[in-house]
Amino acid sequence: MFFGVTSEFISSPEALAVEYDRHLKQVADAYGELNELTVSTRSDDGMITVTVGPRGQVRKITLNPRVSRVLEPSELAQALMEQIGQAASAVAERSRELLDPLLPDDLPYGGTLGDHPNLAELLPRPGAR
Questions:
Q1: What is the DSSP letter of 71?
Q2: Domains of the chain by start residue, with CATH
Q3: Residue spans of alpha helices (H) in 1-129
Q4: How many helices and strands, by DSSP H and E, does the chain display?
Q5: The pTM is what?
Q6: 32-85: per-residue pLDDT in tens?
Q7: Of 33, 41, 75, 105, which one has the fewest beta carbons inside 10 Å?
Q8: Torsion of CA 17, 18, 21, 26, to 10 degrees
Q9: According to the UniProt record, where is the region Disordered (predicted)?
Q10: Lowest mean pLDDT among 13-27, 55-69, 81-95
Q11: Cα 66 to Cα 29: distance, rounded to the nearest angstrom
């Protein structure tokens, strides 16, 4: 089964067209949301806020004016990296939530679109039909 299309749709071109249009809208909606996706995270102490965009790129860093009195430079650098990592992970998880329903059952998100895409996931498996 691909995108919910079963054998009964093959015998009905009209039903197949309706199903195709429905899936096309799902894809367009998901990609629209993906392109607008941003996540902001704030450190527990409220000193640092980081916002990342759809592909995990840093869009904004906001520092509390008191941060230099509270954190040493190395602590600040570490705290920034933690917040960036948390925000990027949240974006990746939301991206997975949006795209997983659009992929065929036998095409896993992680191996094709995730952090470490694997071309082998797209190729036919020996003995698979």
A1: S
A2: 7-103 (3.30.1310.10)
A3: 7-10, 13-36, 67-70, 73-99, 109-112
A4: 5, 3
A5: 0.67
A6: 888 899 999 999 999 999 999 988 899 999 999 999 999 999 999 999 999 999
A7: 105
A8: -140
A9: 109-129
A10: 13-27
A11: 42
Between CA 67 and CA 76 the distance in angstroms is 8
One-letter identity of residue 20: Y
Q: How far apart are CA 9 and CA 21, in angstroms?
A: 13
Residue type, 75: E
Q: Which residues contact 53 (CB under 8 A, 6 or more apart)?
A: 37, 38, 59, 91
Which residue pairs, CB below 8 angstroms and at least 24 apart, start in 26-31?
A: 26/101, 26/102, 27/102, 30/98, 30/99, 30/102
Q: For residue 39, what are the β-bridge partners?
A: 52
Q: Which amino acid is at 89?
A: S
CA atoms within 13 A on the CB side of 118: 8
